[in-house]
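HUMAN: Quick job: go over this next protein and say how the chain folds.
***
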Amino acid sequence: MTLQGKVALVAGGTRGAGRGIAVELGAAGATVYVTGRSTRAQQSEYARPETIEETAEMVTANGGTGIAVQVDHLVPDDVRSLVERIRAEQGHLDILVNDIWGGEKLFEWDKPVWEHNLENGLRMLRLAIDTHLITAHHALPLMIRQPGALLVEVTDGTAEYNAEHYRLSPFYDLAKVAVNRMAWAHAKDLAKHDATSVSLTPGWMRSEIMLDTFGVREENWRDATTTVPHFVISETPRFVGRAVAALAADTGRSRWNGQSLSSGGLAQVYGFSDLDGSRPDAWRYVPEVQDAGKPADATGYR
């Protein structure tokens, strides 16, 4: 699988899924623009150590070319300038991954709309929805100048699962459902330009924030299953990265246009594995085991 000569923009690539995706696109040989608000000189409100420069260096170390650009995707002029830079430096853009999120510190579990902090809920919607639309508005005209472009809208939960399950709060629920629908809507417009749009969800991802929350590292992540048993189905951020790389390298990817996909589901199609050689299929496990109230057991699901 090679993406030599391809140019990708991973919007929201500081950490988590964005970082995993950027690194795997780089491992396949792509030039990857990594954007976010956290740099070595300036932290976002997350106040975490991960930076876009670090992600870009990981892209390069894995065989690609990583380029870090500080961008606030809620600011249209920032995004316009970014795309103009890509046009000037590369002349084309083949892959756009909209992974902007930023809502971990904003959503409140199991609270109805009248109990949830209103300001935080509305900002979460702006971060999850407005950013994606602003970025698509500015980046897609460059992408459709040549056939074969790929847009990946990253969310949490497949369209099928989200349609049948309440996701934590009205704000979080709307944010994640909207991104699935957004990818479907873009697909209608992009099909006319021989381009493909999909939504993609990782499973229970062992992001930097998740590992810190559970007090473990990647090396001993299974220790967390003693208190959170269903964490047994979790996956690294590189797993969803390999899903994006497989899609980008598939010349027949237009068959997925408008669909809601998962990292575990695509692993069964393309044959890639997580870093440990397993293929966790979280969005099959969650309804069949976790939601069904069965004991945690990933046998047959990874």
